[in-house]
Amino acid sequence: MEVLLVKQASLEGFNDAEKAAVRKFLFQAVDGHGKQGKTVWRRFWSRILKAEIGEMFRFITKQDRSGPYHRRTFAILQAVFDAQDRFHNFEQYLNWVKVGAAWVDWVAGPKGGIVPLPRSVSYSEADQDEFMQFTAQVMDFFRCEYAPRYLWRHLKPEQAGEMMRTIMGGFQE
Question: CA-CA distance, 61 to 122, in Å (whole number)?
Fold first, then answer.
């Protein structure tokens, strides 16, 4: 997740008790992990405190991915893949799911048009918040009428939808 911070005011308007409370929160209630983490954390806040009003900072956070949540999402993806007859390669299927779920970046194509480029969901590229968003978008895509009809083209649309609901129901989705 990315947050753009803007220094709004100086600390001149804060009394000593307020400054002490802020310091206590930033360096005791929350702090960097280990010696290096503490150094980086203090340096970060020092830069903000010394900044001019209106100066901006880009703050990027990554929340560690939940292993059980990741495994559950991929178990659902795998169950749908195993039940369908359209794709023979999981990676191609996953790319199709990402495009259908709008988990893409829109980029210039080879002829100048705009094309969807599936985004990564690797641990290094998508933190827990991003992965939860990906999962929600995939579940919405699986629930739409298009995905089941495409995956089970030999079934009537209502049968294909029931197939998807049965698979997802096994995961309480």
Answer: 16
Q: Which residues fall within 8 angstroms of residue 22, CB to CB, at 6 or more apart? A: 14
Q: Block means of pLDDT (10 residues each) for the chain, length 173 residues?
A: 86 87 90 90 89 89 85 97 96 97 94 92 86 96 96 95 95 90
Q: What residue spans define the domains of the chain?
A: 2-60, 67-169
For residue 146, give both structure tokens: 């298009």
**What is the spatial distance between Cα 7 and Cα 3, in angstroms, rounded to a whole number?**
13
Beta-carbon contacts of residue 39 (< 8 Å; ≥ 6 apart): 32
DSSP 3-state helix, strand, coil percentages of the chain (rounded to 5)? 55, 10, 30
**Residue 172 and residue 91: Cα distance in Å, rounded?**
25
